[in-house]
Design goal:
Radius of gyration: 19 Å
Strand content: 15-25%
Largest sheet: 3 strands, antiparallel
Order of helices and strands: EHEHHEHHEEEEHEHEHH
Bound molecules: glutamic acid, zinc ion
Shape: globular
Distance between the termini: 28 Å
Oligomer: single chain
Number of helices: 9
Number of strands: 9
């Protein structure tokens, strides 16, 4: 990390619900790290998932972030040299990346439904990730088998290879492809780029130097490292944050409405007080 390049960090919320205290804490770490490095903080609106995304959440997201004390120097509301900052306006870049992955033989069409995958799985889920390991059913699909059928594109992981990186917070991380995670979707059957692809493409294109995100995404980072490699892109460095848990020890999720920034603010809490409690 002795490189002379300027630090560029990012906040990348998905407008699928109201932001809660858990998001705010991870984002705050991102902002503090950008500040400490004398760098920039970019806001990206990860609004690709139109089935779950609602316009009201985008406005609420911007308002809640400002209220909490976040400041960004590029974003959907203010523009910047790497615009657009709404993922829904960046389809062309994802399509281009998909085409490169396809031409390079890194991906294959998969016609499996969720049910097919469940039925084909013999091994239990790996503990560190929620996604079951894809059993590889479609790896050798022929063109005739996918004709006239809906399919997603899956990344063929290098089975047995250890993907390692040094996390800025947790230190050395090692994940074995095919074991800790399997072939993953980069393009959904409904035509929407998957998070792994859009995120890697944008972090690279927006010249993000460090990605700060929750520890639930450690395995996704290993997947994204494979995407960077396949696309010939340099990967940023990573800093994963401990997840916030509620009083029962459960991960905060968007369903914890009581801990949404909106609710806390309505209750009269100040952002300073909430931060002080950390
Ligand atoms: N939009 C993604 C999310 O909210 C970003 C995750 C990440 O930081 O990579 O889950
Ligand atoms: Zn399949």
């Amino acid at each position: 990390m002795n490189s002379p390049e300027k630090y560029r960090g990012r906040l990348a919320p998905s407008p699928t619900g109201f932001l809660h205290l858990g998001h705010a804490r991870t984002f705050w770490v991102a902002q503090e790290r950008a500040r400490a490095h004398g760098g920039e903080l970019i806001l990206r609106n990860d609004d690709l998932d139109s089935t779950r995304y609602k316009m009201e959440f985008v406005d609420a997201m911007l308002e809640d972030l400002r209220w909490f004390g976040f400041k960004w120097s590029e974003g959907p509301d203010i523009g910047g040299s790497f615009a657009p900052y709404n993922q829904s306006e960046r389809m062309i870049f994802y399509q281009d990346a998909l085409e490169k992955l396809r031409a390079g033989g890194f991906i294959y069409p998969c016609t499996c439904s969720r049910k097919d995958i469940q039925a084909a799985i013999t091994a239990p889920h790996p503990e560190n990730d929620e996604e079951p390991i894809y059993p590889g059913t479609c790896r050798e699909n022929r063109k005739s088998e996918i004709a006239n059928r809906k399919f997603s594109w899956r990344f063929r992981v290098p089975d047995g290879e250890t993907i390692s990186f040094v996390d800025g917070n947790f230190g050395e991380q090692r994940f074995i492809a095919g074991n800790d995670f399997g072939d993953f979707v980069v393009w959904r059957h409904d035509g929407v780029p998957a998070y792994q692809l859009s995120c890697a493409v944008d972090d690279a294109m927006m010249q993000i130097t460090e990605v700060v995100r929750g520890a639930d995404l450690l395995v996704s980072t290993a997947r994204q490292i494979l995407i960077y490699r396949a696309l010939g892109l340099a990967a940023p460095v990573f800093f994963h944050c401990e997840l916030m848990r509620d009083e029962r020890g459960e991960r905060l999720a968007k369903r914890h409405d009581a801990l949404s920034l909106r609710a806390l603010r309505a209750r009269g809490d100040s952002a300073e007080k909430l931060r002080y409690a950390w």
